[in-house]
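Appendix C: a fully annotated inverse folding record. The material below is reproduced so that readers can follow the format used throughout the book. The structure is listed first as tokens, followed by the designed sequence.
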């Protein structure tokens, strides 16, 4: 259980955070449309390295998945039934 002193301290901290957020929203609301656009462009520039790194990881992950899929057959016998019909396992069912 959280004691009353810790609870009230957490509530005070939360109130401070919420007040600061409200102040920030008021400051942004006072800005002109052009200033808001400039703010968003600056944000986009700051985030660009993170977006590039995320895209690099996505491409690398896709390459790994493609390499793994082409390197190993699904079954040791080369992949399913010999009569041409797909078995439940080779059809992708995981039941």
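Designed amino acids, in order:
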């Amino acid at each position: 259980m959280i004691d009353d002193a810790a609870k009230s301290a957490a509530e005070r901290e939360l109130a401070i955070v919420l007040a600061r957020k409200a102040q920030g929203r008021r400051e942004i609301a006072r800005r002109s449309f052009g200033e808001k656009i400039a703010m968003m462009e600056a944000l986009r520039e700051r985030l660009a390295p993170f977006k590039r790194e995320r895209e690099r990881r996505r491409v690398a992950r896709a390459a790994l998945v493609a390499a793994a899929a082409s390197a190993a057959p699904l079954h040791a016998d080369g992949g399913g039934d010999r009569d041409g019909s797909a078995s439940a396992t080779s059809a992708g069912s995981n039941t």
